[in-house]
Amino acid sequence: MSDVLLSVENLKTYFRTSRGIVKAVDGVSFTVEKGKTRALVGESGCGKSMTALSILQLVPEPAGYIDGGKIVFEGRDLLDLTWSDMRTVRGKDIGMIFQEPMTSLNPTFTIGSQLSEAMTIHGKDFGTAIERAVELLDLVGIKDARQTLRQYPHELSGGMRQRVMIAIALSNNPKLLIADEPTTALDVTVQAQILRLLKDLQERLGMAVLMITHNLGIVSEIADDVSVMYAGQVVEESATGALFSMPRHPYTQGLFASLPARNPRGQDLETLEGIVPDAAAWPSGCRFAERCKKKFDACSVPAPVVEGVRCHLMVSGGTGGVENGEWGVGNQPPNSPLTTPHSPDAPEAIDA
Amino acid sequence: MPEPILTVTNLVKQFPVRTGLFGQKTFKTAVDDVSFSINAGKTLALVGESGSGKSTVGLMLLGLLETTSGSVVFDGKPVANLNQSDSMVLRRKMQVVFQDPYASLNARFTVGQTLTEGMRIHGLHETEAGRLRAAGTLLTQVGLPENALDRYPHEFSGGQRQRIAIARALSVEPSFIVLDEPTSALDVSVQSQVLNLLRKLQREKNLTYLFVTHDLDVVKYLADEVCVMEMGKIVEQGDVDQIFEVPKKEYTQKLLSAIPSLDPASRRLGAF
User: Fold this and answer.
1) pLDDT digit string, tens, across residues B164-180
2) A56, B59, B162, B241: which one has the fewest Cβ atoms less than 10 Å from its Cβ?
């Protein structure tokens, strides 16, 4: 496992609210390997963005706090670092791009000043930083970089601003780039350019990427590995190819089946009925059970994680058909010991 | 040959822009010579990227934005320069569902008030009790419990709010609905519920839809006809199969090739 760059183990990020403790991230584990892309995919409220913020310890305080777990980056647990040590990791070893290129740049400073700030904070002198800023803007495909340095964010289009955000995130050659829905606010053609750019830069710089998204098309295009999240937990963990050819968790199957692109015209779309349960009161059993078409008796207790899938069907021998073929013989019975969620001694199966 | 319910001819919208403090007043053309027609009971999709003018077209059809030139004929009558009573009828027959159900519902109205306001204005159903009964029926039709009438928008999720917005559009018994990105703010699993609902309502009530969107997967699934817009102009227009199978224009091809592939074994974006 020497090529693991980041290992998140049983991470718990909770919020104190008037309605009690909200367990936004509830025992999440995954790894990101050097130079590879892992996607965290799920719908709103599943905890994927909060997982990303937890890694950088940017969870909104004081309501939010990390209740437990480990975030091991290059052999050190980031949760053990002091505030000032953490500042040297943030923006240097780990860069981050946020969803909204419209709001994540400061409207009162020029692009040049925001881009160089990221580098002067981490010890470069101003002259070097500006030279590097020009290189970076070239790198992310902005023509006329010197001119752009003098411009303000409002003078740039959404796609251009997102390129600037990427340039800022890349300015200190991070080993890991966390991208939280980097293309959601953008048009499809611009999205395609930005994804292409990320892929190119990753190949050239050998950087690892943690991609947070709700868009399965993006996962398919750029991820090597995928963790599917639902209700604060990872419900399925798999290599991208395997996930798309044979989703194993009923939630993942339902998500794929409900995509318009996978349904014939003139027929109703497959749906996942119901809505995500309330985060202040997760169900005591399997959190997906209420919406699951394959629910059976065992689902009233928390599901074990078997071969990367958090589902009772993995234990009892699944009966339900899968969209792209039946349950493979090789998938069950499980040959790994059952693990229960919440147990700190039982990390999830990582290699699917 | 079925009669089109809506015909748009040479529609133009220009917005005045001033360049500089004392600059000359010039015009920016947002919609440039757009023509199309929709047959009753069908769905026409207007697709394009931000700034292509697709939402502006929708607003002009509804009379929510003045046209610079061109004509919109709905149900045999021109939409412009109607007298008061014809315009009332038109506003009842044409409805709209907007993209963001968090912004489009009045937070201070109960769902019941939201659904009965239009009925009251248009004099539908005799009594308030009758209107509330009708509102209750609408809620069941869009898949919400009748007791939702007394609740406020903040008590509902995004998907449920969009169902309320759809019920509001239906409350005045329209025949034509502009759907302006109705599912882009929703999660995948909720999107499929709302799309199924829209299809069911179209079947049951013979509704005509103008579907304004940038989501080509949804267009392919739902639309009968497609108009592709770029910078205010329709660059290609045709039957949905023709547009997706044999796109003629370079811009359409570019849009289609930018849709992420759902097969990791044949990734598309290398082309970009």
Assistant:
1) 999 999 999 999 999 99
2) B241
